Amino acid sequence: MAETAQPAMPDMERLAVALRQWAEALGFDSVGIAKPALAEDEAHLLRWLKAGRHGTMRWMGRHGVKRARPDQLIPGTARIISVRMDYRPPDLEADDAILADRRRAFVARYALGRDYHKLMRRRLQQLAEQIETTVGPFGYRAFVDSGPVLEKALGRNAGLGWIGKNTLLLNREAGSYFFLGELFTDLPLPEDAPVEDLCGSCRACIDVCPTQAITGPRQLDARRCISYLTIEHEGSIPEALRPSIGNRVFGCDDCQAVCPWNRYAQPTDEADFHPRHGLEHASLIELFRWDEATFLKRTEGSAIRRLGHERWLRNLAVALGNGPADPEAIQALSERLEHPSDLVREHVDWALRQLQSATLPSVTSDQPRG
């Protein structure tokens, strides 16, 4: 980041007030400013990596400590402007109702609409340009889950919330159903104060996790997390964890849905985040029968697209194997037994064995045993 002329210090207070107004006009739901100071978070990250809890996400350690040192990642960074954008669509059916119907597919609420990355990056760019019209050229770079950035820690330091026991950023007025973005800048803006941690003695998120991936307050073993297994993990899903995945085919919102602070989550007016292609009520069989061309067409502009058709089928096969042994489900799975992918065939075979074992007559104590 090249050094640039900056306005005098007294102007920074007025600029901070103005940029909040500009951010709100651009559709951001809150904005905060923090210094690039993350020493404790760096220590936590290094312990997490050393323990191997990042699983196959080797990119988590690829940039070394730069992830926790913004001023090394982007030299000259003096402040981080953090923004929040709510994403939960209005009028959604309760998560529990979908999870209870094992013939339906559960998709994490953030992925029901269009991918957020481009939308938020474009608006952060617009925010930067608005600042530039006031102060002249300055150094900046926008991030939206697009680089080695500890976005939750930066959001916490900027006063957007506190990091909850489920490791997500929580906001007392908005819960946790929101995206985060950052504008690294060389402007010495006035920083915001962190807010109080309001989790208290609650451990609802820890207790509800289907795979016990939250091993303690703010301690996540990604290798057991359903979001990791169904989105980030590229290989075979461990058999011992497959039954706990249920009908979750892309991500998991259990630790959010149970959080008391999400009673205050605000539905979004952003049309791009509203459900597309009926994903909010789709059946497993319907999605499993998408060929690759259909998958690519229906997931265009969606966060799901990055999964690829192969892992999409992998996830759906697991969900079908956890569902009722309907003839239609068995038929749909059988049609994929000769799929060219070893990964798909393995999970299809497992699913069929699950359903076929469920159809075998049970043996009672008064029946003869062979």
From TrEMBL:
It catalyses: epoxyqueuosine(34) in tRNA + AH2 = queuosine(34) in tRNA + A + H2O. Its main location: cytoplasm. Signal peptide: none annotated. One of its GO terms (cellular component) is cytoplasm. Its cofactor is cob(II)alamin; [4Fe-4S] cluster. Transmembrane segments: none annotated. [4Fe-4S] cluster 1 binds at C199, C202, C205, C259. Pfam families: Fer4_16 (PF13484), QueG_DUF1730 (PF08331). Its EC number is 1.17.99.6. SUPFAM superfamilies: 4Fe-4S ferredoxins. One of its GO terms (biological process) is tRNA queuosine(34) biosynthetic process. [4Fe-4S] cluster 2 binds at C209, C225, C252, C255. NCBIfam families: tRNA epoxyqueuosine(34) reductase QueG. Catalyzes the conversion of epoxyqueuosine (oQ) to queuosine (Q), which is a hypermodified base found in the wobble positions of tRNA(Asp), tRNA(Asn), tRNA(His) and tRNA(Tyr). Monomer. This is Epoxyqueuosine reductase.
